[in-house]
Amino acid sequence: MKAEDIQSADDLGAWLKGLPEDQALRVAPQLAFRAAARVFPLWGSIETRSTTSRSDASSLPLLRAMCLQWIAFSDIQGLNKNVFRSCRKYVSEGVNGGFKIVRPAASNMLQTRAAVGNVIVSMIEQKHFDTIWRANDAIDHAAVEKNFIDISVVDPLRGDALFYSELELSNDSSETRLINFKLWPTQPPDWFTRADRETRAIWAEDPETWSFWERWWDGLISGTMPFPLELLREVVLIGDGIWRAGPKAVAERIAEVIDNFERLRLLEETRSIKDAIEEALPDGAASAFQRSHNNPPELIENADPPQQVLIIWAGLDQVEHELTKAKPDKSLLAEIAEWMKKALLAFLRKCGDWADKVVGALLVEVFSSGALSKLLSDLARYITGG
Question: Which of 193-207, 213-227, 364-378 is least confident?
Fold first, then answer.
């Protein structure tokens, strides 16, 4: 069976079975994951405004399962079986709870929700073929409920299979992970766009609770994840008690995780720039700078380059000290960053007069590299929570 000949879920299974075992083990979970992700919005699209506040009706368990599986493709060693076991239980509870809010008369709605839930359960249980078959069931039920037409999970999976085959044939040295590419290589079908729009409308009613997940979902659709793998790992490792407390509790904990993650990243960034400056200074100059932290910011405009460097060094030292705290004083960081920015601009305006000196040239290179400007921009985002 060739990838281009896939016309049904059975054909897809035959194609997978015809691959070398190592390739099949690599691609089958990715295809299943993409099938599950494509039908995920159907869960949210059948919620109603009267039920969106109910934690048992939310899409949170499904999102957690997909995020966990996404991480597993890149970092299975950073997870353990207990994480998957607790997530499977949580998803099953969420799926069953999601049935409670459906009106008894709305049988198609109930079947759609049940089918989508089963897709996610199969995915997290690593039942790849079941996931794909059930994804077909989910969109069949949704087609009846939502009057969708031309609804199929097989066509995009055939596209995935073709794309994967091309990657293998090209001998691409990078890992051939389909999750790093657009969820829909071409234009998403109308049924997905409609369901996605309805899901986002629900999230938009409480953006503080759902903003992280919307950004994660955007990254999954585009193939460009906005969050580092290490951050997502910390999110999925949040304790079960918090997950069961509901979307708001999870959102609050995620905000704390992101804040701490950014703090530690900025601390590392600050120390890296300090190391670069210290290497560019003559022996003993750095320790002399550290003894001279009380230069007033008002001297910046008229300062000679060495004094501007001193001011920046002092600022980096204070930023480093503040970022070592679990709860940094962000107003203080904002003040420090502001006069560091002024010192940097003043230095860059005069650096041409200093660049002909050996030590000066090294410092000019450090300050002109953009690393310090990036740090100041990153600090501004951290301070404002952007």
Answer: 364-378
Compute the CA torsion angle 53, 57, 62, 63 (nearest 10 deg): -10
Say whether pLDDT at 170 is over 70.
no
Q: Is the pLDDT of residue 268 over 50?
A: yes
Which residues are CB-contacts of 26 (< 8 A; sequence separation ≥ 6)?
A: 176
Sign of the four-CA dihedral 195, 198, 200, 206:
negative
80-84, 220-224, 240-244, 328-332: which has the minimum mean pLDDT?
Answer: 80-84
Rounded CA-CA distance 326/154 in Å is 49
Tokens at residue 358, please? 């050996």
Question: At which residue do the structure tokens 């089918």 appear?
Answer: 115
Residue 207, pLDDT score = 92
- How far CA 43 is from CA of 115, 154, 198, 335, 354, in Å, comes to 9, 19, 10, 47, 63
CA dihedral 15, 21, 24, 26 (to 10 degrees): -170
Q: CA 160, 162, 164, 165: dihedral to nearest 10 degrees?
A: 160
Smallest CA-to-CA distance from 33 within 181, 231, 254, 233 is with 181
pLDDT score, position 285: 53
Provide CB contacts within 8 A for 77, sequence distance 6+: none
Higher pLDDT, 360 or 294: 360
Q: For the chain, what is the mean pLDDT?
A: 78
Instruction: Please list, in sequence order, all residues whose beta carbon lies within 8 angstroms of the beta carbon of residue 250, skipping any fewer than 6 positions away.
Output: 60, 238, 242, 243
Distance CA 17, CA 20 (A): 8
Q: Calculate what percentage of the chain has a pLDDT beyond 70.
A: 75
The per-residue pLDDT for 173 is 40
